[in-house]
Amino acid sequence: xGIRGVLVKFIDGTHTSGAKDAVTAGHDTFAEIDATDLxxxxxxxxxYALTNAxxxxxxxxxxxxxxxxxxxxxxxxxxxxAGRTIPTYQGYPIxxxxxxxxxxxxxxxxxxIMFGDLSRAVTMGERRGITIATSSERYFELDQLAIKGxxxxxxxxxxxxxxxxxxxxxxxxxxxx
Length: 177
Known about the structure:
By secondary structure, this protein is of the alpha/beta class. The chain has helices at about 5-10, 35-45, 60-70, 80, 120; strands at about 20, 55, 90, 90-95, 110-115, 120-135, 145-155, 170-175.
């Protein structure tokens, strides 16, 4: 009902400064993304958004990009030495979300991962909290109650930058040619 999410807005043609194509042509699957691609998307983020910056990706992206790069550099991260298993890359936390692309195939012209401060780019508003209503009459003949729960909210993606300046959240886009 009118909510346009981050993944849709990054590829709509009006936020190109923060929507970075993979550096090398043909890097359109998670297995092809390299450290240079990640450095390019990190470099696109404005300095003011670095304080709370993190990566956002799916579980397949975590495994096929970040864990692969960690294995290539010796396999043990600083957080693993400390006894923690918090996913990080270059000191930035990684949030795993299955709302991000999970396909291990071609992701040409699609957001593969995001980097930045989501709280500066997106706001969730609640018009009315959760309300619960019950009726003991609706299913009277079956000795049951009817229970209905509703909530009204909206999500506003308000700052992804524009075609000149990147916003507080940037994205890596799969690039075929």
